[in-house]
Amino acid sequence: MRPLHAAAALLVMVLWGVNFPIGKIGLQEMPPLAFMALRFGLVAVLLAPFVRPPTARMKEILLLSFTLGFLHFALMFTGLKHADSAVAAVTVQIQVPFATALGVLFFRESLGWRRMAGMALAMAGVAFLAGEPGPGSELWAVGLIIAAAAVWAFSNIQMKRLSDVNSFALNGWMALFAVPQLALGSAVLETGQIEAIRTAGWEVWAAIVYQAVVVVILCYGIWYFLLNRYRVNQTMPWTLLVPVFGVLAGVVMLGEPLTLRLVLGGLATIAGVAIIMLRRPDTVAAEIRNA
Q1: In-domain check, residue 289
Q2: Domain of residue 160, residue span
């Protein structure tokens, strides 16, 4: 990989990792579903009007907007609101073993002993981490993040079947479909969202802009460029840095504790994910960012 492209890949990993504490900052003043509705609303405004509508695939994109746009992000950001961002950055990596297992089930991919060992190690790392989440994390919130990872793995199957759709068109129209679902979910399940929007400080709006503009448009734009230029086994290993930067950002930006349990659980999880990805990187979806 050319040095400039390697620097771009590293930048994307840093920005994706920092997204965890930035998202948590936004959630301090805003209910999670309302926050995500605003985030997807901005993505839709910035992308949907400027890309050709994939009219032949709208039904599939609508279904994806429910599983990924609504269900995954509702679980993920509700969990993030009540868990340390560092814990969330590590825990969500369990999505890779989940995706691998579903790949075996739906696509009849082979599952050798090395990948099985990687899955077991990653799950053991998350289990160790969740056994005592720490004072800033509720156990049920970690459970929601694990559930969000499972939903992402299922959504991965849908994304594979939509791989021929322009990435910006997919993101823009999925966001457009997700907004009313999130808004309705917020109206039914949350309270105080109107007041939260009215009184939100600049930090909340900055977090929304960061997630829409930096994470979705800038980072995915760079990432898809790299995926189109280089082999998967040259690009996917970079994503192992996301939880590392996520943990460091949580410690630096939010003052979250860097406990021995977090370090050991994180190392085990990342090592397990690395075994899965580095053995058969072509089976891991390019859309692994999470966030």
Answers
A1: no
A2: 3-283
Q: Give the CA count within 13 Å in the CB-facing half-sphere of 114.
A: 8
Residues 6+ apart with CB under 8 A from 39: 208, 211, 212
Cα–Cα dist 75/10, whole Å:
28
Q: In angstroms, what CA-CA distances link 128 with 77, 83, 92?
A: 22, 15, 14
Distance (Å, rounded) from C-alpha 139 to C-alpha 113? 31
Q: Is 17 exposed, middle or buried (0-12, 13-18, 19+ CB in 10 A)?
A: buried
CB 55 within 8 Å of CB 229: no
> Amino acid identity, residue 164?
D
The token duo for 18 is: 């920092």
Neighbours of 109 (CB within 10 A): 15
Residue 290 lies in a domain: no
Side chain identity at residue 60, one-letter code? E
Q: % helix / strand / coil in the chain, to the nearest 5?
A: 80, 0, 20
Site of tokens 């053991």: 124
Report which of 101, 90, 89 is spatially closest to residue 150, judged by C-alpha positions: 101
Q: Mind listing the pLDDT tens digit of every residue in the chain (291 residues)? A: 788 999 999 999 999 999 999 999 999 999 999 999 999 999 999 999 999 899 999 999 999 999 999 999 999 999 999 999 999 999 988 888 888 888 777 767 677 778 888 889 988 888 887 766 566 678 899 999 999 999 988 888 888 888 888 889 999 999 999 999 999 999 999 999 999 999 999 999 999 999 999 998 899 889 888 878 887 667 877 888 889 999 999 999 999 888 888 899 889 988 988 888 775 444 444 444 444
Tell me if 111 is assigned to some domain.
Answer: yes
288 assigned to some structural domain: no
The answer to whether residues 2 and 220 touch, using CB atoms and an 8 Å cutoff, is: no
The whole model's pTM is what? 0.86
Q: How many domains does the chain fold into?
A: 1
User: Which DSSP category does 281 fall into?
Assistant: G
